[in-house]
Amino acid sequence: MTERSVHDPTLAVAPPGADVSVQPSLPGDPSELTYQYGLEVQARSQWAYARRRFMRHRLALGSLIILLAIFGCGLFANFIAPYTYRQINLQALSQAPSAKHIFGTDSAGRDSFSRVLYGIRTSARVGVLVGVLSTVIGTIIGGLAGFYGGWIDNLLMRLTDLFLTLPLLAVLLVAAKYLGHSTPLKLALLLAFLIWTSIARIVRGSFLSLREKEYVEAARAAGAGDLRIMIRHMLPNTVGPIVVAATLTIGTAILLEAVLSFLGFGIEPPTPALGALLNEGQDQGLDKWWLVTFPGVIIVVIVLCINFVGDGLRDALDPTQRRIRA
Amino acid sequence: MLTYIIRRVLYSIPVLVATSFLIFTFVSITGDPLGRLRTNPAITREELHSIEHSKRLDRPVIVRYGYWVRDAVTKEFGTTLFGNQKIWPELKRVMWHTVQFIGSAIIISVLFGIAIGVYSALRQYSLFDYTATTLSFIGFATPVFWLALMMQVLMVQVFLKWHIRIFYTSGLSSPVNAGHGFHFFIDRVQHLALPVLALCALSIATYSRYMRASMLEVLNSDFVRTARAKGLLERRVVMRHAFRNALIPLVTVVALDFGALFAGAIVTETIFTLDGMGFYFINALEASDPYPVMAWLMVVATMVILFNLIADILYGVFDPRIRYD
Question: How many CA atoms lie within 13 A of B77 on its CB side?
């Protein structure tokens, strides 16, 4: 035992003068240990690398900040908004933007800026809920399909093939018509139920290739069960594509919510949602340009930022995938 | 090649049958067409039952599917549930308008998409390239309906300010004085310009991005280097060697985008009140009439399947490297 510790190669690395006997009493942080020996190496986890890569992506970082600011305004609408979304002011009907009403007012004298803030809250809520739900459903079904193959896989692939032949919007409209007066929750459930398939396809493809990896075989040889292999070994290696797809799904969901509400099949007028605001704006006459301009600009900015954040996440989490950079 | 085409055509038959079943069950289970009548106190239960019986709504879905297929094949999709109007003549009429509408949108987006994509690739990282890239990213984030609304708003503002009417914001042609021949054509263009532009924007953004990526890939390939090395004019290298090969992947992109154009048509036709298929679909849906909705979905699904079939075959014609076996 003592003989072996003398020839221990790690001891050879220790700089002269370092008291080797102190080693066990050092704090557990490995980075401090390396500093102790004068090595300018800091241990970084994969997440730290991903974070650094994301931070370097200026456009994505900027977009994330703008996005958080917009969503924050929506979340705290009741503190920020100068008026409530249904406060009627008969002295100020259909006014163009001014210092008092920076986004103008509608034909009932309601402040458009406040309504847009509350609209952001509704739309963001729907978007995030759809993102979470469809990611969970898509990951579970896609994972099972990719891991086991068989009938789940067949069903999934045929189902997505069939949905490819029908315009998604038409299918959504038929289903939304059935739901009738939609609350944000109902609409989010509906959207998640119809767009999880894209995430399922991604997870399936990834699991299909991971299934053949050596470390999965090793885990199996070590006696790991199917569930453990899927959750502990395969899922962490698919997190990158899933996070990217989930982010982009939020953008898609916000766009779909807007178009459904605009056509009158989504969220009903008393609840302000960005698409519903555009619908009202159109009804009140297009000469009142401010009613249709601002909610739309907000939608475009939100979706644009989400797409850029998704791009940044792809670069950060999936470094093997080199994309042609714009 | 011929066996491939035959196999491909035969394969689309079960897809079509499965799609028809999916459409029928989906529309049937998601809507109670008599819902509005049920809440109407003036209609007795007996009357409701007799309507249900005469329209076979009291039968199981699978039986109704059989009747529906029979009607669709032998009686051209049969009649609407309310008012007993024939579906096909009306659908055929609006389809012609939508074919004009979507057709011109596809042609314009393909031409512009290719031109912008190729030029961006040739002048990579130039001002033009950056502008096109930025615009296409904005295009991906812009809802079609909002773009259409903004165009209308702009036209309204122009009209209010200077009293000139460049393009119309609703309808297919002027209700009076639509004119004949050339005047009719100009009138139609003035009406279709804005909706086509709104519909094109997203497609141009998509196609130009794909075209740029595809062109860059080809320009960096070995055979283009060889063509340059043997001293061909740059023009000839680009046009004959690079461009023609870069076009091939776009065939699939355009074909897959076809369904999305129909979705776009629903939105734009509703906003511009164009008497086309999208407008027809929304009206049928609002009337809770299942049969026109099913017929519409079936026609669109058939078109999408047909378009993908053509794209697959064209892909083989353009790219002889593709093997079919």
Answer: 22
